[in-house]
Amino acid sequence: MISRVLVIVLAFIVAAVQASRGAWIESAGLVGLGAGLLVLRLWGAQRRRRWLAWAAFSVTAVAMIVVALRMASASH
Question: Which residues contact 57 (CB under 8 A, 6 or more apart)?
Answer without folding.
Answer: 32, 33, 36
